[in-house]
Amino acid sequence: MDPREKHPGKLFVLSGPSGAGKGTICRKLLEETEKLELSVSMTTRSPRHGEVEGISYFFTEKEEFEEHIRCGNLLEHAQVYGNYYGTPKAPVLKKLAAGIDVILEIDMQGALKVKESYPDGVFIFILPPSMSELRKRLTGRGTETAEAIELRLGETLKELSYIEKYDYCVVNGVLEEAVARVKAIVVAEHSKVAFTAEELIASYKEEA
Amino acid sequence: MDPREKHPGKLFVLSGPSGAGKGTICRKLLEETEKLELSVSMTTRSPRHGEVEGISYFFTEKEEFEEHIRCGNLLEHAQVYGNYYGTPKAPVLKKLAAGIDVILEIDMQGALKVKESYPDGVFIFILPPSMSELRKRLTGRGTETAEAIELRLGETLKELSYIEKYDYCVVNGVLEEAVARVKAIVVAEHSKVAFTAEELIASYKEEA
User: Are the beta carbons of A185 and B166 separated by less than 8 Å?
Assistant: First the structure.
């Protein structure tokens, strides 16, 4: 057996400004990578048509969600338009223990909270190739006013000052290149001495 | 221009026990990777037939070599059978500044010296999949006695206790997989926030 297979999984947190393309990168990664699964969020909002419990979200009541907060069962949580959203810790830890990597796509505020509750995570910041390209992408979506887009761009500049909290940053100019970079990060993290050496050494010594 | 291209190269130090296959991995990497060059050693031994100055080695006299030691011009050096061998610092730094990654294949003692003189290097330990496989590979070479091979295996076990000094370890069971892992490490290292973020942020702010 390859000694690496004995090792548990890693949590990869993908974050970055809206329009950087973290969602697309995430989907591609999940399609193309073995032993990598998406973290499923918990929410108090009602299920929409087609959403499946445990796959789209874990749907729950407000009281139960607040109980999870009190018990420290969430890696992070936030309230948006009166609904709670959060990342339940137990399903993530269960996958990691089973040797499955977990990917979590989340905004910067959420990512920084996850870093506090799970500092062993690998934090990756996804960036657009330039501010003008980001403006173009946001405009292209056609879902926001010019004013809202300028607000988002200002927000992005502010977020950049937190980039030092992350381990890696990946510029998403050409999608395939960005996906390849994130994949390389996943492979490299599994080769880190701090992550893998202890069991490796034990296996050699046992054999000798 | 991709902002990443403005960044200088990185020094990758490949090390590990004899028979782990670091030489083969190194050759493959150089063949398959752009902007990656091998570090050329300096030596006081005489050129052998077919060896080319500046490609095989930088050939030099004992007095000149000792002057380089005194002036701190070498990243590491050692004496083997009366001849000096060392890694000149200037050609490595020149390549790094030109945005070329440099790979240095070296034994563990040399690697640890390089880590002192150039801690920004990325230190990768190449391991055989098992002690029995290492014994098989060394025996297969047919160049050493059974006794010498057992000595080497004992040496390997001792070297393992220094593995924590390295950043990464890569098990060389299937050559292509090991090469892919080292390539992933090269890509990931270039995406590290500590390495790339400062200039990236500057480019966004300038544009905004």
Answer: no
CATH code of the domain covering residue B202: 3.40.50.300
Chosen from A187, A192, A206 to mutate, greatest number of chain B CBs within 10 A: A187
Interface test with chain A among B123, B127, B168, B183, by most A beta carbons within 10 Å: B168
Asked whether residue B12 is domain-assigned, the answer is: yes
Interface contact A176, partner B, CB < 8 A: no
The ipTM estimated for the assembled molecules is 0.88
Residue A197 included in any domain: yes
Q: Chain A residues with CB inside 8 Å of B201's CB?
A: 160-161, 163
Whether the pLDDT of residue A208 is over 80: the answer is no
In-domain check, residue B78:
no
Q: Is A192 on the interface with B (CB under 8 A)?
A: yes
Read off the amino acid at residue B150. E
Express each pLDDT in B163-189 by its tens digit.
999 999 999 999 999 999 999 999 999
Q: How far apart are CA B27 and CA B12, in angstroms?
A: 14
Contacts of residue A196, defined as CB under 8 A and 6 or more positions apart, other chains included, come to: A3, A4, A7, A190, B169
Range of the domain at A9: 3-39+100-207
Q: Are B130 and A201 an interchain contact pair (Cβ–Cβ within 8 Å)?
A: no
Q: How many Å apart are CA A26 and CA A105, to the nearest integer? A: 7
The predicted-structure confidence for A124-153, as pLDDT tens digits, reads as follows 999 998 888 888 888 888 888 889 888 888
Question: Among the listed ranges A25-29, B167-171, B202-206, which one has the minimum average pLDDT value?
Answer: B202-206
Q: What is the pTM of this model?
A: 0.90
Q: Is residue A44 part of a domain?
A: no
How many structural domains are present in chain A?
A: 1
Structure token digits, residue B164: 């924590």
